[in-house]
Amino acid sequence: FGIYQDFGTKTCGGFPGSEFYMQTDAETFADWGVDYLKFDGCNSNLYDFPSGYEAMGFFLNKTGRSIFYSCEWPFYKIVSGLQVDFAKVRKTCNLWRNYYDVQDSWSSVLDIVNFWGSNSKIFTKYAGPGGWNDPDMIILGNFGLSYEEERVQMAMWAILAAPLIMSNDLRHIRSSSKALLLNRNLIAINQDKLGIQGILLQKQNGIQIWSRDLSFNRTAVAFLNENSDGMPRFLSFSLVDLKLTSSTYNFTEAFDMKTNILVTRQRPLKIKVNPHGINLYIAKEMHL
C-alpha cells in the first residue's frame, strides 16, 4: 500500500503538503498501514531539502513501521543546477529520482537512458542494497512504445537495477507486453543479489554498450541501437571492447536463454541489433 505526499506546502497537484506537519503525517501513514511513501518536492525551498527530507525519514523510522521511502530530492536539485550530496541522499532515502517523469514515448525513455549514461559513474557509486536510483516507471503495455522499444525499456531497467514499478492498465495489456513484464530472466538480472548498477561502457554512432556485474562471476551486456533510420546494425565487438578480461566467454541471449555464442580473444562477438532495439546477453567465463 503506497501513498503520495509532498515536502512543500502543497503537492504538485495543489493538495495540502507535509511542510510543518511531517511528524503528524508520518504517524498517520503508519496508522493507515502505509508501506511505501513517495515524497515529492513541489512548492518548497530547495535549500531546505537536506534537512526536510531527513526529518521525514526520521519521523517515518520513529513510527516503528517499515515504510519504504522514495524521494524526489536529487531531481529538483539537478534540474535547478545545484549540487546533490548523494551520500546523504542514500543515507536518508531508499529510492530517489534523478530526472524528469517518464512519458509514454520513445524519446522520453531514450532521454532517461542517455541521462543515466552521462552520469552512470556517480549514480552507480551510490546505488546498491538499501538505496537505489530511480529512472521512473515501466510504461510497457501503453501506446507510445513499439515492441522493440518495450524490450529496450525492460532490458535497460534490468541493467540499471531500477525499481520495476508499472504505470499501465493491466486489464488491457497486450500479451507481448505482459510476456516482457513477466520475463523471469530479465527480472533475475534486475534483482541480482549483488545489487550493482550497470554502467555505460561506450557510445558511438548511435550504439550504446552497457555492462552490469552479476553474481557467480557473470556479466550482463546490453547493446542498444538508438538509430531511427529503419535499418538494423551488424556489429562486431572484441572482449577488450566489452572490458571482459578472461580469454573465453559464453554469451547467452537473456530474453529467452536459448541462444549461446562462444566468444574468445580470436573470435569476436558478431550480432545484429534492430533499430530502436536492444540485444541483452549474460556473459559467463569459460574454462576450455
Helix content: 25-40%
- Looking across the biggest beta sheet, what order are the strands in? 6-7-8-13-10-11
Rg (C-alpha, Å): 20 Å
- Sheet with the most strands, sense and barrel status: 6 strands, antiparallel
Distance between the termini: 51 Å
Helix segment tally: 9
Beta-strand proportion: 25-35%
Low-confidence stretches: none
Overall pLDDT metric: 97
Q: Find the structural class using helix and strand composition.
A: alpha/beta
Question: Order of helices and strands, N to C?
Answer: EHEHEHHEHHEHHHEEEEEEEE
Overall number of strands: 13
Shape: elongated
Question: Which features would summarize this protein structure in a list?
Answer:
288 residues, alpha/beta
Structural write-up:
This protein has 288 residues and is an alpha/beta fold. It has helices at 22-32, 49-62, 73-79, 86-92, 106-118, 120-126, 147-159, 175-181, 184-190; strands at residues 2-6, 36-40, 68-71, 95-97, 132-134, 199-204, 207-214, 218-225, 233-237, 248-253, 260-264, 269-273, 277-285. The strands form 3 sheets. Strands 6-7-8-13-10-11 form a 6-stranded antiparallel sheet. A 5-stranded parallel sheet has the order 1-2-3-4-5, with helices on one face.
Topology overview:
Blueprint: E1 2-6, H1 22-32, E2 36-40, H2 49-62, E3 68-71, H3 73-79, H4 86-92, E4 95-97, H5 106-118, H6 120-126, E5 132-134, H7 147-159, H8 175-181, H9 184-190, E6 199-204, E7 207-214, E8 218-225, E9 233-237, E10 248-253, E11 260-264, E12 269-273, E13 277-285
Parallel strand pairs: 1-2, 2-3, 3-4, 4-5
Antiparallel strand pairs: 6-7, 7-8, 8-13, 9-12, 10-11, 10-13
Helix pairs in contact: 1-2, 7-8, 7-9
